[in-house]
């Protein structure tokens, strides 16, 4: 069996792991899209972002994708919504809402899903090549 095929499978598995982490971050954002602060002036849920990095696997001699860090989006402002009877409403009746945009999250999760599926396809192709090689050797 070729070590290149096994390396390709390992690279794809690491890609799937990274995209799985991305999907978890996005689903947490969506789950907290309406989580406001508890008191007037307190901050609501802040959107999380994930970044990746390439890391060299010195043992096997190839680069693989890894989660670099999960951080909060401090650039996007909190939108405000007029809800005067909410416990977190300020003196004018406005409540800070999370900086989660459902459309962005939807696009992000679809991209992560496609990347996950592409990596899964690569593993399936590699597995098929290994099985075909075994069949040829046994013939």
Walk me through what this model shows.
By secondary structure, the chain is an alpha+beta fold. It has one domain (3-138). The chain is 47% helix and 19% strand. The chain contains 2 helices and 4 strands. It has helices at 3-31, 102-138; strands at 48-57, 62-72, 80-82, 94-96. The strands form 2 sheets. It has a two-stranded antiparallel sheet with strand order 1-2. It has a two-stranded antiparallel ribbon with strand order 3-4. α1 (3-31) runs antiparallel to α2 (102-138). The longest helix has 37 residues, at 102-138. The protein is elongated. 16% of the residues are buried. The model has no long low-confidence stretch (mean pLDDT 92).
Count of alpha/pi helices: 2
Q: Helical amount among residues, as a percent range?
A: 40-55%
* Number of DSSP-assigned strands: 4
- Helix-strand topology string: HEEEEH
Quick one: biggest sheet? 2 strands, antiparallel
* Spatial strand sequence of the major β-sheet: 1-2
Q: Strand share of the residues?
A: 15-25%
Mean pLDDT: 92
């Amino acid at each position: 069996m070729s070590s290149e095929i096994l390396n390709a499978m390992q690279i794809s598995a690491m890609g799937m792991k990274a995209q799985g982490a991305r999907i978890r971050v996005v689903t947490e954002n969506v789950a907290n899209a309406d989580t406001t602060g508890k008191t007037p002036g307190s901050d609501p849920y802040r959107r999380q972002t994930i970044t990746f990095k390439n890391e060299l696997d010195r043992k096997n001699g190839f680069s693989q994708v890894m989660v670099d860090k999960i951080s909060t989006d401090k650039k996007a402002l909190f939108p405000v919504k007029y809800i005067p009877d909410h416990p977190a409403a300020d003196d004018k009746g406005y409540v800070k809402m999370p900086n989660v945009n459902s459309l962005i999250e939807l696009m992000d999760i679809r991209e992560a899903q496609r990347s996950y599926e592409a990596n899964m396809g690569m593993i399936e192709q590699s597995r098929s090549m290994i099985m075909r090689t075994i069949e040829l050797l046994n013939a």
